[in-house]
Predict the structure.
Amino acid sequence: MSDAPFHLPHFLPYLLNQAAEAAGQEFQAYYRGRYGMLRTEWRVLFHLGCYGPLSARRICEMASIHKTKVSRAVAALEAKRYLARSQMADDRRVEDLSLTPVGRVVFEDLSGAAARFETRLVDGLTPEELRVLRRGLLKLSHLPDAPDRPF
């Protein structure tokens, strides 16, 4: 065992959480202020906007969000008329969720805002630093290598 003391600011899970919170604040202010959305709502909206119709279960799997939170987000997005539900033909117990035309407009606006925000966020990184950061985060998140930006 090492004699080196534990330093919380250097503990990777802590550092990743702090970076995520700091990075998300400005974008959160935009989607909350403009559309009254909570974090889980924009995540559900973005999954539908990026990948097309999905079941709530599939969103839970893809986004690693608990089913209760997804259910609440779906209800809120439906109340705002950003998404619609339709029963799947092969299993009437499962609903496909998709963006409405209004939801598509909101997604397009938020996609543009997200891209602008990300550009400002990584402005101080070199292309190589950004590539290494993305690759490392994908590995830590146990996500497959993602294709270029879906939005």
Observations:
- The chain has a mean pLDDT of 89.
- The chain has one domain: 30-140.
